[in-house]
Amino acid sequence: MIVSGPELQSAISSMTEMGFERDLVMKAMKASYNNPDRAVEYLMNVSFQPLPPLVKLMNREISQRLKDLVVRLK
User: Fold this and answer.
1) DSSP 20
2) What is the pLDDT along the chain (74 residues), one digit of tens a residue?
3) pTM of the model
4) How far is 62 from 39, CA to CA, in rounded Å?
5) Residue 48 CA from chain centroid, whole number
6) In the Cβ-directed half-sphere of 11, how many Cα atoms lie within 13 Å?
7) What is the DSSP-derived secondary structure letter of residue 51?
8) What dihedral do alpha carbons 28, 8, 3, 23 form, nearest 10°?
9) Which of 34, 43, 45, 57 lies 20 to 30 Å from 8, alpha-carbon distance?
């Protein structure tokens, strides 16, 4: 169920009343395309914390190695 307008504001209020920080609620709503049920699942199960620099570096390295491998396989 996707919500907008007053229903959206009500859903946001409900989640903040559950104890979730408003900025995290907004991120979860955006990630869930304004589906409150899915947003609550995200809030309970997904970390919205930024990745540490080392993890970002590792992700870039892995991505580059995969690209190199694909090129070699062609």
Assistant:
1) -
2) 889 999 999 999 999 999 999 999 999 999 999 999 999 999 988 876 665 676 677 878 888 888 988 888 87
3) 0.62
4) 30
5) 6
6) 22
7) P
8) -10
9) 45
